[in-house]
Amino acid sequence: MTTRRSARLVAKTAETTVAVLPALKVATKASKVTKERIRKPKGKTSDVTAVSRAASSTATTTTTVVAVAPLSSFPFPSLATPQVMEDALRHLKAADPKLGKFIDKTVERCEMALDRDQDGHTSYISLCQSIIYQQLAGKAAAAILLRFLKQYGTLKDESKADLLAASGAGLDSGDFVFPTPQQVAAIDTEELKNVGLGQRKAEYLKEVANKFNDGTLSDEKLAKMSDSEAAAALVAIRGIGPWTADMFLMFHLKRTNILPTLDLAVRKAMCHHFGVPFGKKTPTHEALVEMGQIWEPYRSVATWYMWRLSGTITQKS
Description:
It contains 17 helices and 4 strands. The protein has helices at residues 4-13, 35-38, 47-56, 82-95, 97-105, 123-133, 138-152, 161-165, 181-186, 189-192, 199-213, 219-224, 227-235, 242-251, 264-274, 285-291, 299-310; strands at 24-27, 63-66, 154-155, 176-177. Helix 4 (82-95) packs across helix 5 and helix 6 (123-133) runs antiparallel to helix 11.
């Protein structure tokens, strides 16, 4: 269960720096991992200090100046914009040469999109689907979503009404218009459980619907919020924690500088990438943020590649 403390901590560190940042000095051989980087420091040195020393241990070589590309879109840059994505990749390759090599050999192109996303999906639909998919395998969640849409959605093509009236075979979620916030808010919680939702998920779904139905949240309001403001607004809703908020910011709002430090795969991949030991309680959130500073203001894209990297890490690695 997510604590309010961790929610506030993640919301605080999620804020995107929109202004053009000053030039950064980075080591041209930053990918080298020395024994000093992973040796446990003596005394009561903090995790952040240890990581800082680890990062700086490679900085004694010749350095180059990397100018951060401007984030030019209003009100916030979007990774759906090809130029922003190109700027992000260019910056990451220059700032982190080791990551740059991995980017170059990764066949799949970075795209901030989920398989269940469809054109025209609103923030409300995205959040509802996130709740349905929480802690479930993809196929199981997709089946529940389809049952939900068959029961409460509207067919986009009326010619398929006979299919729906029969068994519904041959239909998928893309065939339906998602029910409105007003409609979902009016559905009884017990009734929602009939499509496969648990008690809590049914309640969470109604809470999201209520927030959009009463105007507390909207596409327009969320689009104008900074990363930290949006994260705070989302985690205030029961059923949405920092990880879900981070995924929404990355994949729906397409924000550039999100680092989901609660994501286990990202944590492991970052430790592997930076040569830092991984443990149950380490590295801390602060240490991960310290490590990820080299990627700013494009931590979202670096995170996408950390997910890809996590799939290549073996037990011996």
